[in-house]
Amino acid sequence: MFLEDEFAIGRMRMRRISISFLVAATAFVACLAAMLGLASAARAEAQQTSGQLAALVRPNDVNSGSLLFPSKEPGFFVEAPRLKTDVTIDVSGPIARVKVTQRFQNPSQGWVEGTYVFPLPDNSAVDALKMQIGERFIEGQIKPRQEAREIYEQAKAEGKKTALLEQQRPNIFTNQVANIGPGEEIVVQIEYQQAVRQSGGEFSLRFPMVVAPRYNPAPIVQTVEFNNGAGFATPSDPVENREKIEAPVLDPRENAKINPVSLTVNLKAGFPLGDVTSSFHAVDIGQDGDQARTISLKGDAVPADKDFELTWKASPGKMPSAGLFREVKDGKTYLLAFVTPPTALDAAAPPAKREVVFVIDNSGSMSGPSIEQARQSLALAISRLNPDDRFNVIRFDDTMTDYFKGLVSATPDNRERAIAYVRGLTADGGTEMLPALEDALRNQGPVASGALRQVVFLTDGAIGNEQQLFQEITANRGDARVFTVGIGSAPNTYFMTKAAEIGRGTFTQIGSADQVASRMGELFAKLQNPAMTDIAATFKGVEAEDITPNPMPDLYSGEPVVLTAELQQDKPAGKLQIVGKTGDQPWRVEMDIAHAADGNGISKLWARRKIDDFEARAYQRQDPAGLDKDIEAVALAHHLVSRVTSLVAVDVTPSRPVNEPLGSAKLPINLPEGWDFGKIFGETDGATRRAAADPAGNAAPEQAVAVTQEPAASPEIANMMAAVPTAKAATLIAQKSSTVNLPQTATRADEQIMRGLTMLLLALTAASGLAIWRRRIKGLVKAGAKRDGL
């Protein structure tokens, strides 16, 4: 009996031991599996991190003045792509062909995508995009905008080198280049056609180099639109594509200037040349006969921080008064004609009474030389008023002041008061231009009998809501004429030119204090003399379908009639007749088409102007989709970039490995020369918006760029650049990072979990072993006691 009980107790003990072993083994296997899983994940993460870190650098790794941008990895930064631009301008008579070569360099060890926001002339007809990879050139194809974007994004995802050129404004473009390999350079070439500007016996062309920071007003409640009566309101943004026209801006107080540009002009005027002058840059000028010059920048390259302007005049007595050029393409003839009407002033006629509303911009972007130029220009204009004139002065930043609260007589006392007020203006604040324009057009009372109402706007045009202002001029101009005066080193010429065109006035540009007297003198001549009106162009003996611009603008003293036309024949015969009148005096000129000289690129200029005509009349049309289709048809037929078409180039061979990450960089730009960074972006956060330059001051222009790494940084980070070989500058940027980085002494969660599982596994193993040995020892003790009879 006792023996059987002993056997039963033994079996129960063995069963308990087996259960303990099973529990311990299960816990052991679970812990081991968890540890292996975490180890595998950690290994994969380490491999991924090492791949990402290949594209990153630490501040101490940088040996030259490079700009860095914070990454999501604590202590690591992204070294930016670098940009260098070469420009060649070939001028042949009234037409310029421009080739812009942008070299994107990737100094980092990772793959990047670069986006560059850059300006072109507002009348440029962009028709070519080429991407050079090694010795190969890949031609860009014109596509509808959305289709071009989809082609680019797909090629980018597939690791193929690709470039996309888009128009954001007629004078602002973006060039995106994807999959630039480590240490690699990709060359993108853009070409466009442009008409030479002529006024007052002077020819000129301008190549803009930098997009000035824009003041972009926020949407306002009054602009909500209700969709199809559904009861849901959608606020309309007055700034189209606002994120596309903004770029990080370097603080010139702390950073070396970047984006070097070399430029050469091959000038063949078509007539004997007199003075040839570069307005803002030092140049070397070589002569090749009496009609040709070669102009190049001194020192090979300059930073892209102000516009380049070249002017030239004919030698005395050789100034052409008219010109007619043609190009035959696809069985059609395209004409470019210009003629300068004679200036026939009636000296006996008394000067017309004028009502002049002067509007001056004293916002922050006008600080420095710009506000001084504007003050000088306006003071000079006020001093030139006649006693019988009436005038007013309106100034604006993010507030507005109507100085006289309406028009007053231009008495000596009022002129002196106004000049003293203007000379005391300082530049600060935002650029709320619309209220000032509304006040100038709506609140100055009725036009006196026999008087001319003129609105003179002095501004740099650094705004993004151009369409709002164009609509205001169109709706409320009445009989007034709007004259714009562009101030500064990088004005928004698109806004200035179009506002003057819609306002039936003219545009004057002043880029330095040296130009104030001469350029304002030209403007006074235009303000004081009657315009040539009722201008019309017709063809005799030949049918012309489209003549641009349509309608023809009014002209002022020294301005030529410039038009383009499309004729259906390849060898048309007939005459072009242009008529108009100055006051009550009629004027007419005829030009024989058969005598037109051959020219290149005229079809592109006609198409560009045709698109401009469509855009100018957009407010008259009720079908935006139909308008876009009309623009798209012309742009595609002539291979032009427009608001609805883009150029895209794709390499057929993938270059970026699938497992390699792709960083994204929006290349920064210089602040325009003479601008005050603190007035634009504020002084309080300036220390964190910028970082220190190379302490030795030796950072080369092409070595100072900033970038962001996807995911994108915060808007504050978007304006923070660093030429940083120092850890201090890197710390300033890292403090504003959009992510919260752990301190370097913190322990990662996955490491803690693995340590905990390991300790749990050891504890289970120790507990199981102790339980087994405890029972065995207890059994041995009992067995020994029985043998001893205890």
TrEMBL record:
<dbReference type="InterPro" id="IPR013694">
    <property type="entry name" value="VIT"/>
</dbReference>
<keyword id="KW-1133">Transmembrane helix</keyword>
<dbReference type="Pfam" id="PF08487">
    <property type="entry name" value="VIT"/>
</dbReference>
<feature type="domain" description="VIT">
    <location>
        <begin position="66"/>
        <end position="194"/>
    </location>
</feature>
<feature type="transmembrane region" description="Helical">
    <location>
        <begin position="753"/>
        <end position="773"/>
    </location>
</feature>
<protein>
    <submittedName>
        <fullName>Marine proteobacterial sortase target protein</fullName>
    </submittedName>
</protein>
<dbReference type="InterPro" id="IPR036465">
    <property type="entry name" value="vWFA_dom_sf"/>
</dbReference>
<feature type="domain" description="VWFA">
    <location>
        <begin position="355"/>
        <end position="527"/>
    </location>
</feature>
<dbReference type="InterPro" id="IPR002035">
    <property type="entry name" value="VWF_A"/>
</dbReference>
<dbReference type="Pfam" id="PF13768">
    <property type="entry name" value="VWA_3"/>
</dbReference>
<dbReference type="InterPro" id="IPR022440">
    <property type="entry name" value="CHP03788"/>
</dbReference>
<keyword id="KW-0812">Transmembrane</keyword>
<keyword id="KW-0472">Membrane</keyword>
